[in-house]
Amino acid sequence: MHIFFHEGSTMQDRFISTIGEGQRDPLLATLRESHQYNVVIHSVDGRELIDSKGKKLLDFASCNYIGFDQDQEALLAEGVKAAREFGIHTSRARLMGYHTLFSNLEEKLAHFMGGEEALLFPNTTLASIGIIPALMRHGDLIILDKAAHATMYQASQVARDKGALLKSYENEDFDSLKNILEEHRSAPRKMVCVDGVYSMTGDYANLPKLLPIIRKHNALLYIDDAHGFGFIGENPTPQMPYGFRGNGVINHYGCQKDDPILYVAGTAKGLAAASAFALVTPKMKEFLMAYAKPLDYTHPSTPFALGILNAALDLLPKVGEERRLKVFQMTHTLVEGLRQMGFYVMTKTLFPIISVWVGETDRLLEASRKLYNKGIFLTSCPYPTMPRGKEALRLTITSSNKPEHIDALLDAFQSIALDWRSIGAPFHPMDLEGS
Ligand SMILES: Cc1ncc(COP(=O)(O)O)c(C=O)c1O
Fold first, then answer.
1. Is 129 in the pocket of ligand 1 (CB under 6 A)?
2. Which domains does the chain have, with CATH numbers?
3. What is this structure's pTM?
4. Does the structure show a pLDDT above 80 at 241?
């Protein structure tokens, strides 16, 4: 037994070591040096953490924007009830059969979103991996926004294996999108894939510009709203630019049922429930149930997770508005503070994803380490998580953060600003022009 284990692990390591340096991207080595990687969290008190080295950290790396991950009192009981009633696990793949928990929740989600039907997936990643290759086949055209999430790219690569053509365009370069659609107008099916809320900038898919192009070219717009669902929603106002109800980017822009959209939402970030869903027509639902691989081969979300999702949908209208306002105020203070210090913050929307431009690896790593040492836990984004020249420090704000956390964060960034000034480092990509 011992010998078998030893040989097995040696072969595993040989597989890794025979991938030559030149074939690896530098992500792992870079992240290791950032200290903001593999942080093992020992204890949690809201957004105040202690890691396994005993370091106290303020958490600016959570995507549970309205703090439902910390709502044990309100949500846990329903998760446990679902597990008691239907079992700890689902026992089988979705296609074979499922509990009423699934059908009831799908009805509730479709109603909440103003759609016809919903179809649950275990998570957003598996929704994309299931849906995109199921729909896009030989001769079809997939166009990816280059800023869209990597999981849609992975899903599109599977579709490309089946003969679909894969193209991409720079975010917001709508002329280039039009040209690709025009050039491949004879493709039987055309799909354009975008994030609802971009995971690095917090900006929203420009649906007012995209939809007329999509309609004109008989295409389908695939929207991954992993960040937007549960947070942004309908009827935005200047006082509440995120909008209301948390019913996602499509309601934020007032989209209609007959718009050419396939909307997919993750529930893990907004509602702290390990699941996802697509808004579909009955015909699409029947098709995907059979042909989206994660539904016929993979276990679905557990009854516990779906119980949490059910309770979270009930809690959302009760606490959502107040918590979104809190997030807006803290995000506003943070962005203003960072901008006053001279930092370039990539946000048009004040969505609580705040990426501070650094623009190169060494300074990114130095800042990441310094911020960790000052007790700030954030997402360090070197190449290839960001394109070269756009390396950034990503901060996320949730309603479980406190105004004093923002003060501490700004203090920590003040010391980064001092460091950068002392060496004449650029604060903005434009500072590099002509240098
Ligand atoms: C835009 C986007 N899509 C998908 C995902 C993956 O979501 P999930 O954890 O539901 O698979 C993420 C995760 O951060 C994301 O930012």
1. no
2. 25-68+320-424 (3.90.1150.10), 90-301 (3.40.640.10)
3. 0.95
4. yes
